[in-house]
Amino acid sequence: MQFDIATPTLSEEGARRLEWAGRRMPVLASLRERFRQEKPLEGRTVAACLHVTAETANLMLALRDAGARPALCASNPLSTQDDIAAALVAEGIPVFAVRGEDSDTYYGHIHSVLDLEPDITMDDGADLATILHTTRTELNPVGSTEETTTGVIRLRAMAEDGTLRVPVVAVNDSQTKHLFDNRYGTGQSAMDGIIRASNVLIAGSNVVVVGYGDCGRGVADRARGLGAHVIVVEVDAVRAISAVMDGHRVLTADDAAEIGHIFITVTGNKHVLRRRHFERMRNGAILANAGHFDIELELTALEEMAGPSRPIRANLDEYVMPDGRRILIAAEGRLVNLGAAEGHPADVMDLSFSNQALAAEWLVQNEGALEPQIYTLPAELDAEVARIKLEALGFGLEKLTDDQVSYLSGWQEGTA
Ligand code: ADE
Fold it and tell me: Residue 16: what pLDDT?
């Protein structure tokens, strides 16, 4: 078996963390039980380009239970947990991922999983799909899945310009994915990353959240829960007013730059904090990115202004401006929740990765009948994921009476 990982000797530590995460993934566990009976992916090769974490490792084991041959590479050069990579290799699953790998190695690893000629590909950010549609055009998988908002936006652009040649399930579009992972997962893990990188007190600080989608809203909620004064920067008026009614201040980036102590970008767009904002920032401002790509902070401009940085703590680099102000960057401007912490907790990845596993099964079930388009998983599967989670958490779900069902489908009953 081929693989490329940093430290095979970390496999036992990785196996323990993998087991711990698995215990908090009851929906995936119930799918695994069914998969072991039904083997819906028998003989299929699945090439996954996902963050190499304990939660992803549980997904890989679920795919293997389903009869698949999974292989894994990283979807971000800084998010790989080397102990987990080692644990998966010890399980006989090919992994090509090394924390901190350079760009050539990162893309080389994507090629390595594609060399296995996958039937299904899984992406988080659409880097693998991009290679599939540019340099590896000899490959023809049955279909692909995409985990994240950024990846879905890229794939929709490919569908629109006619480039897309495989059906894609936008896992992000399942309600049981984006309403939970994006909000509660990003909210908690982004704050976790900033705290681990800096150990600063959040209470009483001005936390600027740039972007108020599901992820930004989650980050703002959690920052407020820790006692921050939250300031939101938005370009969309509806989202901005929603932030106002959630109780946050909404300012332009220029105005927020002057008062923020901590800045978190969660937009999916490039250079949302740039030279003009760095010029205005207070001494000691801490900047972190929780969006998928490391383009939200214009670090090249910061480097031009301040010269090279120096690491002041693990995952925290300090730039000194010509006027003496210090600006600190967490996790090199890459996804702070995975670069400086462990990513979203297993409890929420349970929902996301159950959707991934179901998406792979759905693509195989519908092989030959799908167009090169972006699909969302059927609503019944979404509801099933939610139902199993609710049951596992020990909560009850109320049922409609027959009378209520008929009331909802009729129009005759109005004002009494
Ligand atoms: N994305 C965010 N958190 C993650 C995690 N724990 N595992 C895999 N992908 C993630």
Answer: 98
Do 289 and 265 meet the contact criterion of CB atoms below 8 Å apart? yes
**Pocket, ligand 1, Cβ cutoff 6 A:** 50-51, 53, 55-56, 185, 189, 338, 343-344, 349
Fold match between 8-177+344-392 and 184-339?
yes
CA distance 262 to 229: 10
Cα(85) to ligand 1 centroid in Å equals 14
- What is the residue extent of each domain of the chain? 8-177+344-392, 184-339
Ligand 1 atom nearest the C-alpha of 335 is 2
What are 180-233's pLDDT values in tens digits?
A: 999 999 999 999 999 999 999 999 999 999 999 999 999 999 999 999 999 999
Mean predicted confidence (pLDDT) in 390-413: 96
Nearest CA among 155, 143, 182, 178 for reference residue 382: 178
To the question of domain 8-177+344-392 being in CATH 3.90.230.10, the answer is no
Domain 184-339 has CATH 3.40.50.720: yes
CB 28 within 8 A of CB 351: no
Contact 71, 46 (CB under 8 A): yes
| Ligand 1 pocket mutation pick from 24, 51, 186, 351 by most atoms within 8 angstroms of CB | 51
- Percent above pLDDT 90 for the chain: 100
Question: Distance (Å, rounded) from C-alpha 288 to C-alpha 333?
Answer: 6
